[in-house]
Write a structure and sequence with these properties.
Distance between the termini: 39 Å
Structural class: alpha/beta
Number of strands: 20
Oligomer: single chain
Number of helices: 17
CATH architecture of the largest domain: 3-Layer(aba) Sandwich
């Protein structure tokens, strides 16, 4: 069946960069075959979280919960593939003009087809072409029935911070892309003023500790008939989410990175908005040498698992370039303390050298280099160009990793410890890097959930659930976890990883 089906898709003459959605894991094999044919933007939507364990997840964007309105903007796909039992006329809203829906059906379902077409016609009020083949129906959407396009001229970005930290960097990249790709003039602002644009994108992470200001600002903007898109970079907390529901829905769109984060807030009305692609970072040339050297970068923190990366490199006897950046939101005193703790944990080992970003003449590409300090984009790109692979060892947090998104611009295979960030980032994942991994991850995750409870970020029930989840993860890693070997690492390919660009979602939300 699938070989014939692939031929039907190819006959539609779609561009290889067209977005294709497959609804139902029963059709998952088709998504991988399309990927092998060269289609780059394939999405698979299922019912359960187990979809994350689907093979080949680096090439296909997997999500669960079949409510399309939560996951995707309207007019987002060129093709939707589903079976008759999963079809809903609402799907017509999510295909572009001149887009297609392909329905698979069983012979026993033929009586449902005429009834289905009546539903489509009543719902859409637009012309569509229908072609019925054996076991397949192709519906082509010819006229978009939602042609209202607001005349956006300028957009403001409110991010509450002006330090060179993740949120501010993200806001500046968004500003530049709005101008360069959509011709929209936008300004990054740290506070509300009387001259806010008609549409405002609010960038927020709970670490900013400005929940009340966020609520006040959104209420003020929507009261003045401004349209607000809230881009959340972390869970908001159910209390904040419930207060936001008091704002008129027509003026506020709440977005989350994934369903899991929305579920944590008990959210029901939201849109999924992935991190935008770091298009300001140039793609570097492929690594053509017959050697393995891993690289990693990001702000220094216990949750980054640097010790685990070092243990893996020592075990496999491979060199590394690990860049540990100073977080502008932290203090220099804490940064130096963490570096000293790292130095103590590593001890004196001849294959490891530790030095600052001001001592780059110490670099030795045959050893494990740990460099700490402040790094420019140019330095990160330069150092990672010396590496064959990029590796991360994040501890699981309900966030999408901007660092993984950044790394996808560097044209290197990426692998990581299995974590929420790694699953969402669609990179190669492994349950452990060394024998110590289960114990280190359990300690760190238990510490984090305990502190979250003490800081009143989570309630007692969430504390218990978090502790149980940490223990189950520990057992899974201890008993079933496999670490990457050289054969697996050398087989990885950079172009096997899909980079789902949040900017395309945002463009559809803005209707420009």
């Amino acid at each position: 069946m699938s070989e014939t089906f692939i031929g039907i898709v190819e006959n539609l003459k779609l561009d290889y960069m067209s977005r294709i959605l497959i609804v139902s894991t029963k059709l998952s094999r088709i998504s991988y075959q399309l990927s092998e044919k060269g289609y780059k933007r394939i999405y698979l939507l299922g019912k359960r979280k187990s979809i994350y364990s689907t093979p080949n997840n680096t090439k296909v964007r997997c999500s669960y919960e079949r409510n399309l309105a939560l996951h995707y903007p309207e007019s987002f796909f060129k093709l939707i593939i589903t079976n008759l039992s999963n079809f809903n006329v609402v799907m017509m809203d999510f295909i572009q003009t001149d887009g297609f829906i392909i329905l698979t059906y069983k012979q026993s379902e033929r009586k449902e087809i005429s009834r289905l077409f009546k539903k489509v016609e009543l719902y859409t009020n637009n012309r569509f072409n229908v072609k019925t083949l054996k076991n397949y129906i192709i519906i082509k959407k010819e006229i978009n029935d939602k042609n209202i396009i607001p005349s956006q001229k300028n957009i403001d970005i409110l991010c509450y911070i002006d330090k060179e930290e993740g949120l501010f960097i993200h806001s500046k990249i968004l500003r530049d892309r709005l101008k360069n790709e959509l011709g929209l003039i936008s300004t990054v602002k740290q506070s509300l003023d009387k001259n806010m644009a008609p549409t405002v994108i609010v960038e927020y992470h709970r670490n900013l500790k400005k929940d009340q200001q966020l609520l006040d600002d959104i209420k003020e903007m929507t009261k003045n008939k401004r349209n607000v898109i809230l881009e959340t970079h972390s869970p908001l907390g159910s209390e904040i989410y419930l207060k936001l529901l008091q704002v008129p829905e027509s003026n506020l769109t709440i977005t989350y990175r994934s369903n899991e984060i929305a579920e944590y807030d008990h959210a029901k009305k939201y849109k999924i908005l992935p991190v935008l692609t770091y298009s300001n970072i140039p793609k570097i040339a492929s690594f053509n040498k017959n050697e393995i050297r891993v690289g990693s970068f990001g702000f220094l923190g216990k949750q980054k698992g640097i010790i685990e990366i070092v243990n893996l490199c020592r075990k496999l006897k491979i060199p590394a370039l690990l860049l540990l950046g100073f977080n502008p939101l932290g203090s220099e005193e804490n940064f130096n303390r963490d570096i000293n703790n790292l130095r103590d944990n590593l001890g004196k080992q001849k294959e490891i050298i530790l030095y600052t970003s001001n001592e780059l003449d110490k670099i030795d590409l045959t050893k494990i280099n740990i460099v700490y300090g402040i790094f420019s984009d140019e330095q990160i790109v330069y150092f990672m160009s010396k590496c064959s692979h990029i590796v991360f060892a994040h501890r699981s947090r309900l966030e999408e990793s901007g660092t993984i998104k950044y790394a996808k611009r560097l044209n290197r295979p990426i692998f990581a410890l299995d974590s929420f960030q790694a699953r969402l980032g669609q990179v190669y994942r492994f349950k452990k890097f060394s024998k110590k991994t289960p114990f280190l991850v359990f300690r760190d995750s238990l510490t984090e959930v305990t502190f979250a409870f003490l800081r009143k970020r989570i309630n007692y029930k969430q504390l218990v659930l978090g502790t149980v989840e940490s223990f189950l993860t520990f057992l899974d890693q201890l008993i079933f976890g496999g670490a990457p070997g050289m054969e697996i690492i050398t087989s990885m390919k950079a172009d096997d990883m899909m980079d789902d660009d949040g900017f395309e979602y945002l463009r559809c939300l803005l209707k420009v």
